[in-house]
Amino acid sequence: MLKRSNLAFKWIDLKLISSFDDFYYFYLVVKHGGFSAASEAENISKSKLSRRIIDLENKFNVSLIQRTTRHFKVTDLGQEFYEECCKVIAQVECAENVLLKQKSEPQGLVKVSCPPLMMHFQIRKILNQFLKTYPKVEIALELTSRRVDILHDDIDLAIRTNFEPNEDSNLIVRDVIKTDHCLVASPELLQGRTIEHYSELQDFPSISLGTQKQNPVWHLCNIRNGESVDVPYQPRIKSNDLAGVYYAVMDGLGIADLPFLTVESEIRKGTLIHILPDWKSNIGMLQLVYVSRKGQRLVVEKLIETLIEELRRLPESHEGYLST
């Protein structure tokens, strides 16, 4: 009985290994957005990828990818299956990295997403020092203000600012540090006028972060007496990237709400005017977003740990930050 049982387990193991190969080929094709792209990126023949995915579809009598000579589309079932494959492959990588953790230093590639302006003002120095400390680490940066899909976009770690409570999700969302915001405008826009009351804000054009906001408001809070007020505004310019807002306000096109740390030097030099300095215009939360703590790769784990440690030191030496 024992021998037959062992043979059964061996047969199951081989079957699982064969299936995993097909799952992996499917994952690669969807990840790279097509058979040709996957073939070129992974050095696997296009015919092999196509044959293995056809075999997978035939095995389960399903359609995972709709394809013609000019068209490639993942079906709804294929997308759901892809997301599960991502989880399986991530677990395999974690299992491999149990062994890598025996090594004394982090190594390997980390794919990071971060808004460009945040990278410049907050993350760049920390990330560069991390790379100098661990020379075997590689970083692939996606600089974007778009809210990335961690699984679909194949990102290990997303760095972002959020103004809303954390959404329910399977993702790990770490609140790291709060950032003060303020209203600013260029001297060119104000033409020597001093804004004394928030009701005067509507006398000037405005700039908004986010292109989909309906009925936007500035959430103002008085730092002296705690009074708060919502001031509605109609933006002349909407930008999906903080850098777009920053350069528009620098060019005198309107009043904008920006993180204090991004405009501190401009305010000091006089190239931007801090409007209503007794009022904060918003408080953002810098967050780290990733898939799972369990079995995290050593290099990702160490980068997360370093970012949290260094970012939480900033309130000691910089205005514009609040401890969580």
Would you write up a description of this structure?
This protein has nine helices and 15 strands. β1 (65-67) and β2 (72-74) form a beta hairpin. It has helices spanning 2-32, 35-42, 46-60, 76-100, 116-133, 187-190, 242-250, 260-269, 298-311, and strands spanning 65-67, 72-74, 108-114, 137-143, 157-162, 172-185, 207-209, 217-222, 228-232, 237-239, 256-259, 273-275, 279-280, 282-290, 321-322. Helix content is 41%, strand content 24%. The protein is of the alpha+beta class and 324 residues long. Strands 3, 4, 5, 6, 11, 12, 14 and 15 form an eight-stranded mixed sheet that branches. A three-stranded antiparallel sheet has the order 9-8-13, with no helix packed on it. It has a two-stranded antiparallel ribbon with strand order 1-2. The N and C termini lie far apart (61 Å). α1 (2-32) crosses α2, α1 crosses α3 (46-60) and α5 packs across α9. It has two domains: 2-100, Arc Repressor Mutant, subunit A (Orthogonal Bundle); 103-324, D-Maltodextrin-Binding Protein, domain 2 (3-Layer(aba) Sandwich), CATH 3.40.190.290.
